[in-house]
Amino acid sequence: MSQMTDMRKTEEEWLRTERLPHVWCPGCGIGIVLNAFLRAVIRRNIPKEKMVVVSGIGCTGRTAGYVNVDSFHTTHGRAIPFAVGVKFARPDLNVVVFSGDGDLFAIGGNHFVNAARRNHDLLIIAVNNFTYGMTGGQHGPTTPTGAYTTTTPYGNPDRPFNIPHLAISLGAPYVARWTTYHVNQLQNSIYKALNMKGFRVIEIISQCPTVYGRRNSMRSPMSMMEYFQKNSVINNKASYEEMELTYKGKIVVGEFRNVGGIPSYEERYEEIIRRAQE
Amino acid sequence: MSQNKKFKRKATVKVLEERCKGCWYCVNYCPTKVLQVSEKMNSKGYHPPVFKENIDENVVCIGCHLCELYCPDFAIVVEELE
Amino acid sequence: MTEKHLKEGYYFWSGDVAAAEGAIAAGCRFYAGYPITPSSEVAETMALRLPQVGGKFIEMEDEIGSIAAIIGASWTGERSMTATSGPGISLMNENIGLAVMTEVPLVIVNAMRGAPSTGLPTLIGQGDLMQAKYGSHGSYEIITLYPNNIQEAFDLMFDAFNLAERYRVPVMYLLDGLLAHMYEKVYVPPREEWEKKIIRRKRAREGQLPYQPDEDMVPPMPLIGEGYNIHATGLTHDERGYPDLTPQAQEELVRRLNEKILKHERDIWKVEEYLTEDADIIVVSFGGESRAVKAGVNLARKEGIKAGMLRLITIWPFPWEYITKYSADYIVAELNYGQMYHLVREYSDNDVYQLNKMGGEIHTPEDVLKRIREVSS
User: Fold this and answer.
1) What are B's interface residues with A at a Cβ cutoff of 8 A?
2) A35-47: per-residue pLDDT in tens?
3) What is the model's pTM?
4) Could you tell me the domains of chain A?
5) Which residue in C67, C174, C196 sits closest to C124, CA to CA?
6) What is the CATH number of domain B11-80?
């Protein structure tokens, strides 16, 4: 059997297959991200008992329920601090926060900012579908200005977060953005980030045809994918302005930051213990 | 078994029909178009794709696994031929 | 590197310091918190002392993050704690619900201030007694303990952690503005002696599901990193931990979460009964306030009034049997508009009176005496 076929079989062991089909709508991008994530983890040969997945609330928050490792579906916005507790208590574990844009950047924004600042050794898989899907398609912190949602019926007056810019400004050592169209780049990016230390952020622009696409003339799963395909531009050296997302505009993707050698909080605390016990 | 002139047959596509939700990314992204939307419905009412090789000898799966990578529902297994 | 543990001897500590040292002695090795008066010295002590014993201290961005972090840490098997005051508890309440629902042992210190809102940050209050039990949404039981002196603030921490681990439940450890900042002498026994008091977490049998309870209704807790493939969710779940959003699953789970505590309430209860045997009037009290109450009862006895004091050390589950067992009248002395008063009334067949102060300071012994005189005449 080929490596790829093997990987697909191993993937089944990493899934709680008895819970499939999952709750996500037809064409939802979260499954594509999870698929890429599991493949990257399998390629890294990480033992299952060394992997912990923490999610918050919302559509992406359900991810923890499908991965067959120690996995936690926490409260809304609190996946990062929960993961901080796990990682700080057990630095030998790979702790991944897998959650959505509303969870990580609106209700959980303060935790994102401060955990990034402290450089906790966490991999953040941030699925950005521009909306609150689980509650019916309200506008969120990443909804592009002008977009139509159930709470912006006349178009969104807000400005969305520029997530890579935010993460880079906080000193995150690895920051990338892909869309669900970029399945291979995404998988490789996660593969690379899994082998790094510190607060690593990968934003994935994902489709929600059910409640976002339908109000913004992208009703079918394929029409959202086509939007990503046609409008994505790979530019690893993009400026912060270019990283901004606009309504139906260009989506600049790439690996925006990749620096090593910044000690993580967990590493710095080892020194604290050493000093305290001198 | 006849072979498509351009490509060599490398794999077969197995569809786990009960997991499928009918987004048809697989059908769209297959470079050699070996999948098509089937007439039949699974128990949730979705139309899973069907592997065309079984019905049309001229289509050939080249084993690129794109359908598998794009499937959000873990409903596809590409099995490479030995 | 060598770990630095407390040596046997006498120490002069505040309630905050004693609670922190008690927690470390009781095996606490993980603390996440956010500073808030009058609890901040707990954090300061933890920051200094935890790394000395190989533990971890982290100052989080807020109280919500703090409790989320200790829930995560507790899943790795560490005895975990946070400390705050009323405003912080208000922020933590959602995640207290998560810890209840996912059955995670925690100790949460609440050094109560005058409240509501920012209230009296440096001064005593006892307004968070109902919040301790009813703060989060839904119907649930947690355990709440409340010492009244600094020695007890140290000693009772063993109970707090042992109960949390024994019942897989958050334990609210109440202090107040008075106890938090008051200094008293504390005796610390030799380490071998205190370590014997530590009860370790029950471990799952081979093949036991993460939420499959034993006879005592408490499921042993699997730990992260041991290959259990735990799944925990705040959603209503089955014994595997998988979401099960049905009335049947809800009925089974929520009943068990309540009953695993209530069925063991007699094992949990701790009270101090002072001159209650022959009492005609019993003053119910707790925490800092009970120190004045005891003095007031003594004054009443000198006048020939048969007064006694029932001090609740366990606030929740409410030790109701200590109310029903007496045929005396009750005064409930508390620094709020009347909270435990309602509980005492629920269980007493006799008259129940109030002695309230809104906080900021405790009653004087003379205030207590005056009220005893009024109701016993």
Assistant:
1) 11, 18-25, 28, 44, 46, 63, 65-66, 68-75, 77-80, 82
2) 999 999 999 999 9
3) 0.97
4) 23-276 (3.40.50.970)
5) C174
6) 3.30.70.20
